Amino acid sequence: MSRELFVDIAHHHDADCAVVTVTGDIDRTSSPLLRGAVDRLVSGGQAHIVIDVKGVTFCDSTGLRTFLSGMTATFEAGGWLRLAGVGGHLERLLQITDLHSFFIIDPDVAGSLASARTRG
Predict the structure, then answer these.
(1) For a FRET experiment, which of 48, 49, 51, 64 has its CA 20 to 30 Å from that of 116?
(2) For residue 120, pLDDT beyond 90
(3) For position 2, what pLDDT does the model report?
(4) CA neighbor of 53 nearest in space, from 2, 15, 19
């Protein structure tokens, strides 16, 4: 049973980044929602993005491509993309595809924000 994807964006001006919280399944039909959110942030000048994936219940290859395209977009804009709360299915998928070391991964959003603040 597919779980609808929800995306919420919070701006953290003290850390000069946005946190995109995603819950539900990231797949072929839902990934455009996440990709659109990241694209809007980058085109609006926000090149430092944390994606909180703690609530992700499923992710397929389309979701992985969405993370990769977001990382590319932020990098090209002079920023970065971090994943927070990676675990379970998503962690296994990142390890199997050898992408785990490709992303900056923090245990949780608090860790991502602390890292962002020290870089500023």
Answers:
(1) 64
(2) no
(3) 67
(4) 19
Is the torsion defined by CA of 84, 33, 81, 79 positive or negative? Answer: negative
Is 120 strand, coil or helix?
Answer: coil
Cα distance between residue 43 and residue 27, in whole Å: 23
CB 34 within 8 A of CB 27: no
Which pLDDT score is estimated for 9? 97
**Rounded CA separation 109/90 (Å):** 16
Which helix (H) or strand (E) is 118 found in, with range? helix 109-119
Greatest Cα pair distance in the chain: 42
d(Cα 87, Cα 81) in Å, to the nearest integer?
A: 17
Angle (nearest 5°) at CA 90 between 8 and 115: 60
Angle at 12 (CA atoms; ends 86, 61), nearest 5 degrees: 30
Tokens of 57: 């219940």
- 8 Å CB contact between 110 and 10: no
CA–CA gap between residue 14 and residue 86 (Å, rounded): 24
